[in-house]
Design goal:
heterotrimer; A mainly beta; B mainly alpha; C mainly alpha; B: mainly alpha; Rna Polymerase Sigma Factor, Chain: A; 8 helices; C: mainly alpha; two-stranded antiparallel sheet; 6 helices
Chain lengths: ~300, ~200, ~190
């Protein structure tokens, strides 16, 4: 009977565990993960870590038709809550000045980090199924995304083995160094105990307009990147209106800001402590262009270096 | 899903004022719409009238198209409603023919006098084209045939086809393109015979 | 300016002239490529003919062949006469998301700003503001401090705006940014 058990054991492990696998298999996992993070009700607590900084967040997700609503409560420091609906999110904070509310454009958060079109990632990341690991007491399948070029960071994702819900996500840089991580410490899938997320009503200030007739044209983007949006907006705490363009390959994001250049403008280049974020400013004609992204500097430099004046 | 992607992209362009993008949608769906309407209205000339009206109504209604349903579903609904209105209108003005039964108002009246403008010649041409396409597909090397069949008849995305045929997505893209070109090459002589006829 | 060399756009695996049209038809181009393809298709009568041939092939395989010459002509004429529809820009279905948490985290990021000095790119010129920052390095080869005037609170709004699309777990309406000197040279 021993040989039968051995055979069963061999069959139970995917033949390709730990080595490169057909793209289609990993894409299926990514797709499951992408769907689960939106369509599955869940509630739990996760930790986000970036360098020395850690933050604990309570999250609940309520699918609602073809969209979902969610709420996050920050458990450390100043009380803060973010409520997300299909189209936007509102941050509520309680501080010395009482309650403050702020609307943000983004409404997605861990564990919903994968793009809609996961198949596209195959072109720019090598996908690999790793071993099974335990996260928050549950068995998960590890999926590794290794960049095929130097224009993006890598990712290690752990998906709960039955539902595909991402329970852990690590963004990795050079030499597999973790740049940013999220991990559930506790999660319950399939239920949410709370009532529906009540979106606070905020005055609808239409302060975002699509960019028209920009003085700048993007000649090329780094491979795999495409433009997600271009809006005219005001920068926080500043009075100037700028163009804000957003490019992404589905996982890494780069912003470009265009505004009239100040009289004495100097180009600068910057990098955050672990290299996660990179920034570059340059002058183009009479305009200042600022490119910043959570992507390696070659990607930021590429964007900045492939612009034309119209 | 991929089907809806291109439609969504074309609809968005059309909504931004690009009429050519809407023409691409017309080109894509006009045969299917004609076939749908022919099941409701027997007169070919009237079917064409209704189809034209449907497309124009759809174009005007683009700002109201929310994009959460498939474009063709929305288009077809407009087509069906236009056809129903047309038939309801006709019933009131159509002179009663001795052999025409009254009553059952919901069903399109199939006993109206029809003038089929789809001449025997063009009907035959349609059949010949369908035959030529199918023959051309059968003549393809197997991997091209599988790819085009999975795409056009099963409606699979490139990614799903890649999974099914166990090859990279780039290969799927190439095979489908080559299949289409091979079939088109056989069709072009037939299509080119009449400058006027566009299929 | 020592920008990254222009990277040649890698053509898709099958780079033959009309493969893009086939991929466009199947909805397999990403939004950006599709936009360009649609523009190109609109300007090229030959490509439009191929678009209609491919459409015919698909419909024929599904058993749907109809004579559309007359309808096609009529719709184009009627469409030309229609006032151009302009709808408000649709928001993308999927909002972009960033991995990086927002403002409060930015406050403790210690930025190492690298000068773009012509003679010696890559020499760290000045880092400060964050606790325990190294001393400013004096380097004559580096262009003097015109850009160091640019304080961290000049850079911060861009970071916050970038993260505005991000999921703002740690977001706070007020920013608390420590100044960082920047230097570099103008091109």
């Amino acid at each position: 009977m021993k040989w039968l058990f051995c055979l069963l054991a061999i069959m139970a492990t995917p033949v390709w565990a730990g080595s490169a696998i057909p793209d289609s298999e990993a894409v299926s996992w990514l797709r499951r993960m992408s769907d689960a993070s939106r369509k599955l009700p869940y509630e739990g607590i996760f930790v986000m870590q970036m360098g020395d900084r850690m933050q604990t967040v309570q999250v609940e997700n309520r699918p609602n038709g073809f969209a979902n609503e969610s709420r996050l409560v920050v458990l450390d420091g100043q009380p803060r809550e973010v409520r997300c609906s299909r189209t936007e999110s509102v941050t509520l904070a309680w501080g010395a000045k009482g309650q403050q509310m702020e609307r943000r454009m983004g409404n997605r958060h861990f564990p919903d980090l994968l793009p809609e079109n996961v198949a596209k990632l195959v072109g720019f990341y090598s996908l690999r199924l790793g071993k099974t690991i335990r996260v928050a007491g549950q068995d998960c399948q590890l999926i590794e995304l290794t960049p095929k070029d130097r224009y993006r960071w890598g990712y290690r994702l752990c998906a709960e083995q039955y539902t595909g819900l991402p329970l852990k996500a690590v963004m990795v840089g050079d030499h597999d160094r973790p740049l940013l991580q999220y991990a559930f410490v506790k999660v319950r899938q399939g239920v949410t105990s709370r009532a529906a997320v009540a979106m606070p009503s905020m005055p609808s200030v239409e302060d975002l307009h699509p960019v028209e007739n920009s003085p700048i044209a993007v000649r090329q983007l780094p491979p795999g990147y495409s433009q997600l949006a271009a809006v005219k907006r005001r920068l926080p705490n500043r009075d100037v209106e700028v163009e804000h363009w957003i490019f992404s390959d589905g996982l890494s994001h780069i912003s470009m800001f265009v505004e009239p250049a100040p009289e004495r403008m100097v180009s600068v280049k910057g990098q955050s402590a672990r290299g996660l974020m990179n920034l570059l400013t340059r002058k183009l004609g009479n305009y200042q262009v600022t490119v910043v992204g959570d992507a390696p500097s070659p990607a930021v430099n590429f964007v900045a270096g492939n612009l034309d004046l119209r | 899903m991929s089907e809806q992607d291109i439609d969504r992209q074309l609809v968005e362009r059309a909504r931004q004022g690009d009429k050519r993008a809407f023409e691409m949608l017309v080109e894509k769906y006009q045969r299917r719409l004609l076939r749908l309407l022919s099941r409701m209205v027997k007169n070919a000339e009237e079917v064409e009238d209704i189809a034209q009206e449907t497309f124009i109504k759809a174009y005007r209604a683009l700002p109201n198209f929310r994009g959460d349903a498939a474009f063709y579903t929305w288009l077809y609904r407009i087509g069906v409603n236009t056809a129903k209105n047309y038939l309801a209108g006709r019933k009131k003005t159509m002179p009663t023919l001795s052999d025409q039964a009254m009553g059952d108002d919901d069903e399109p009246d199939e006993r109206l006098v029809v003038q089929d403008l789809n001449t025997p010649e063009t009907a035959l041409m349609s059949k010949q084209i369908a035959l030529a396409v199918n023959e051309a597909v059968d003549a393809l090397p197997e991997e091209l045939r599988s790819a085009i069949t999975l795409r056009e008849m099963e409606g699979l995305s490139y990614e799903e086809i890649a999974e099914s045929m166990n090859c990279p997505i780039g290969t799927v893209r190439s095979r489908i393109f080559r299949a289409r070109e091979a079939i088109a090459a056989k069709l072009r002589p037939m299509l080119g015979t009449s400058q006027d006829t566009r299929w | 300016m020592t920008m990254a060399q222009a990277h040649k756009w890698a053509p898709p695996q099958d780079a033959t002239a009309d493969a893009w049209l086939s991929a466009l038809m199947d909805g397999e181009l990403d939004d950006d490529e599709a936009g360009r393809a649609i523009t190109r298709l609109g300007k090229d009568a030959g490509a439009m003919r191929i678009w209609s041939e491919y459409g015919l092939i698909g419909d024929a395989l599904r058993g749907c062949v109809q004579d559309t010459a007359s309808l096609d002509r009529r719709v184009k004429v009627a469409l030309a006469a229609e006032p151009t529809v302009l709808a408000p820009l649709a928001k993308s279905h999927r909002q972009p998301v960033y991995w990086v948490a927002a403002a409060a985290v930015v406050a403790v990021i210690s930025w190492t700003v690298v000068s773009m000095a012509p003679n010696n790119p890559g020499v760290p010129v000045a880092v400060n503001g964050a606790p325990n920052a190294p001393q400013m390095v004096e380097d004559e080869r580096v262009r003097p401090t015109s850009a160091q005037d640019m304080a961290a609170n000049e850079v911060a709004p861009y970071l916050v705006a970038h993260q505005d699309y991000a999921f703002t777990v740690a977001g706070a309406p007020d920013m608390n940014i420590t100044p960082v000197s920047l230097s570099g040279d103008a091109r």
